[in-house]
Design goal:
Largest sheet: 11 strands, mixed
Structural class: alpha+beta
Number of domains: 5
Shape: globular
CATH class of the largest domain: Alpha Beta
CATH architecture of the largest domain: Alpha-Beta Complex
CATH topology of the largest domain: Spore Coat Polysaccharide Biosynthesis Protein SpsA, Chain A
Low-confidence stretches: 215-219, 328-354
Strand content: 35-45%
Radius of gyration: 27 Å
Number of helices: 12
Length: about 725
């Protein structure tokens, strides 16, 4: 009797990561599978780990071969696979426990050729975050779709977040080429060959980003790696030309943004003897890309394209170093042609520089001179919402006479706001600091049907005038009640700030720990018929009865043991499960809490959290060091949090990893343990100087996770550092 699913796992010298990868497979809720392990000539202790899993679980089988590379090793695994379905896992990655249950169930329901799910990137310093290349293709569930119907799938270039029907795989005789970046040609061909494809928004794969930079995708500036990247791109371009020319705009734009940029970045550090070959690679790729794609990419990338086409190595080196330093601004080649403001566009008509780069490439179109206005700090005063931030017209200095205005927009109503200029430490000549106040009385007067409101910034610098909606840096802004409504600032998906007026929704007004239970109290909107609280998670929901009163109040008692699942959390890296409480179809707005409430249960903890939009989340996680408060006093940062039994709080450090290494430098915090709390204090003035250093708060081997209520004041600027959060971890970046 053959298993329903075959999981092919090639490995080579991954003893540091292999056990965690295989453990995530052994814990799958879908049990009818086999794991075909392919030892591709591994030289370290990986084989011993693989043999131990095979001995402990008959579903794991081992195949060995001389080292041939990832693509051929996958092909070997397919030859030994016996399942009805087929999937692939890279040996340093992790798979969420419900992944294959959801993917196989989807294929059983739709009879599609393959099913794919969303992906997360992860490591200790950056936490868990959305994978860039999967953010659009898997933003929503799309059963039985196709790449020609949904072109975003054309840049779904990885093979491992999918389950394939084996007879489909054999019908088209897929084989991985013996190169790195072997996924994309196979994945795109499968999308084109498929009858239909299922897309799942739930994360089905966790893609590791190693601190050491050892993985194939992280060794992207090694010449052999770059050469394989270009070969893979050429195979994809040939396929699109031959089979799906309607996908050319999507694929060409993606390769220009990702692959071409990667080739140019290699010029920053490449040896002199590598330059001719590197230039040849870049020109091979630019020679295949439609020039029409240049209309969709920024001016800086257009300059990279033309520098490759013209063979200007000096310019390519400057561009690469400029990008590496984070300096995507004007004036890259001031010694030849400056990047000229749009008003001088008529100068040098049709001319070219000595290497053949058109002079117009160095000039900026009006759309490039856009206004970037961002609120970096937000707080509620007694009479107003106070916003502080920065504004600049990109590529232009802010002269002394520059003006900045703010307007509150609610439907057709536009209300001017007062703006005060404030200094911006280290902001440079282009940045204007501002403070503006949105009076509570103005918000209270907005008709209730208007819903969300936004702020429009208008700036004039010299003859240039620009407008833009105000952006927001803070990920977890605090809301406030005004009259009968709750006003919640939020960062929209486009980075812009919106101020949402919320009324008539279920609210959480209180929470307490009571023994082994978390007790929630709140208010229900009139007419609510639901009598249970549903805790939605990646797969199976948890249901809790509601006790309701005649005044619309409710109480929900959540036994922690009903939620804790210590052996199989949804997040295989952090060991956490996120639960989203709902009453009927309504989320719960958090209006009565300013901090987390947590209930320990054995070596696990159930905690209240809040979403960026102020809605209630619950997090079930291991009892580890977590931060619930962050204070800044001059150069001194103090981070504190609750203490749990059995957890070591003696050594908490700010850690900086060495470039391309798992070796790190630690800055030890001064620790205080007081009753049920811990506090870690660091004077940032004592940190060793390092250019572009990024320090992460660690406790032992784990980056400290911060409770969402503690993140409302971030980012914060110190004298020499920026304190910010990345996926719940705390970072100090040299500014």
């Amino acid at each position: 009797m053959f298993p329903r699913l075959s999981i092919v796992v090639p490995y080579y010298d991954v003893e540091r990561y292999l056990a965690a990868c295989l453990d995530s497979l052994a814990r799958q809720t879908f049990r009818d599978f086999e794991v075909v392990l392919v030892d591709d000539g591994s030289r370290d202790g990986s084989a011993g780990i693989a043999r131990a899993f095979c001995a402990a679980d008959p579903r794991f089988r081992l195949v060995t071969q001389e080292n041939q590379g990832l693509g051929p090793a996958r092909n070997t695994g397919v030859e030994h696979a016996r399942g009805e379905y087929l999937t692939f896992v890279d040996s340093d990655d992790l798979v969420p426990r419900h992944a294959y249950e959801m993917l196989v169930r989807s294929l059983d329901r739709t009879s599609s050729s393959l099913a794919g799910g969303n992906a997360r990137r992860f490591n200790n310093t950056a936490g868990v975050r959305q994978s860039y290349v999967h953010r659009f293709a898997f933003a929503a569930d799309r059963p039985a779709t196709h790449v020609l119907e949904f072109p975003e799938l054309a840049i779904d270039r990885m093979v491992w977040n999918k389950v394939y029907r084996r007879r489909f795989w054999d019908q088209f005789a897929y084989r991985f080429p013996a190169i790195r970046y072997e996924d994309y040609p196979v994945t795109l061909k499968a999308h084109l060959d498929a009858v239909t494809v299922d897309c799942l928004a739930a994360p089905t794969y966790y893609w590791r980003e190693r601190e050491s930079g050892e993985s194939i995708t992280q060794q992207k500036f090694v010449f052999g790696n770059l050469e394989d990247r270009v070969v893979s791109a050429e195979m994809v371009l040939d396929m699109v030309d031959r089979r799906a020319p309607e996908l050319r705009p999507t694929v060409h734009h993606h390769l220009a943004q990702i692959d071409l940029t990667t080739v140019v970045q290699a010029f920053a550090a490449a040896a002199e003897h590598e330059m001719p070959a590197l230039l040849g690679l870049g020109r091979r790729l630019t020679g295949r890309l439609d020039e029409q794609v240049l209309e969709r990419i920024p001016a800086f990338q257009r300059l990279e394209y033309y520098a490759l086409r013209s063979g200007d190595v000096e310019l390519l080196q400057r561009l690469a170093r400029f990008r590496a330093d984070g300096g995507l601004t004007a004036g890259v080649r001031a010694d030849r042609h400056p990047i000229l403001p749009w008003r001088y566009r008529s100068a040098y008509p049709g001319s070219r520089d000595a290497t053949g780069v058109p002079a117009d490439v160095y000039r900026l179109a009006p759309k490039e001179l856009e206004l970037r206005a961002t609120a970096t700090h937000l707080e509620w005063a007694d009479d107003a919402l106070v916003l502080r931030g920065t504004a600049e017209i990109l590529h232009m200095p802010a002269d002394d006479d520059a003006t900045l205005r703010m307007t509150l927009l609610a439907g057709l109503r536009a209300t001017p706001l007062r703006v005060r200029r404030i200094p911006v430490p280290g902001g440079g000549e282009r940045v204007t600091g501002f403070e503006t106040r949105v009076p509570r009385s103005v918000l209270a007067a907005i008709p209730r049907q208007r819903g969300s409101v936004r702020l429009m910034a208008s700036m004039r610098s010299g003859p240039v005038r620009r407008r833009s909606l105000l952006g927001l840096q803070t990920l977890y802004p605090v809301g406030a009640r005004i009259g009968d409504a709750w006003y919640q600032p939020a960062r929209a998906s486009d980075g812009r700030m919106q101020l949402r007026r919320i009324a008539g929704e279920a609210e959480l007004t209180g929470a307490v720990a009571d023994g082994d239970a978390l007790v929630l109290t709140g208010r229900l909107p009139s007419g609510t018929a639901a009598r249970e609280l549903v805790l939605s998670r990646a797969a199976r929901d948890v249901r809790v009865p509601l006790e309701t009163g005649p005044d619309g109040g409710f109480t929900a008692r959540i036994p922690v043991r009903a939620v804790v699942d210590a052996t199989s959390p949804d997040d295989p890296f952090l060991g956490r499960t996120l639960l989203i409480p709902k009453i009927g179809d309504s989320l719960l707005l958090v209006t009565g809490l300013s901090g987390a409430v947590s209930v320990p249960y054995g070596d696990r903890v159930l905690s209240i959290a809040r979403s960026p939009g102020q809605y209630l989340n619950l997090v079930e996680a291991p009892a580890r060091v977590s931060a619930s408060a962050i204070t800044v006093d001059g150069d001194v940062i103090t981070v504190s949090g609750p203490r749990w039994d059995g957890v070591d709080y003696r050594r908490i450090v700010w850690r900086r990893f060495q470039p391309n290494s798992d070796d790190a430098v630690d800055a030890l915090c001064a620790m205080t343990l007081d009753g049920g709390r811990w506090a870690a204090r660091l004077d940032t003035a004592a940190l060793e100087p390092a250019d572009e250093a990024d320090w992460t708060l660690f406790a032992g081997d784990y980056a400290v996770q911060a409770e969402t209520f503690a993140l409302t004041s971030l980012p914060r600027h110190l004298a020499r550092h920026l304190l910010y959060t990345r996926a719940g971890t705390l970072h100090l970046e040299t500014s």
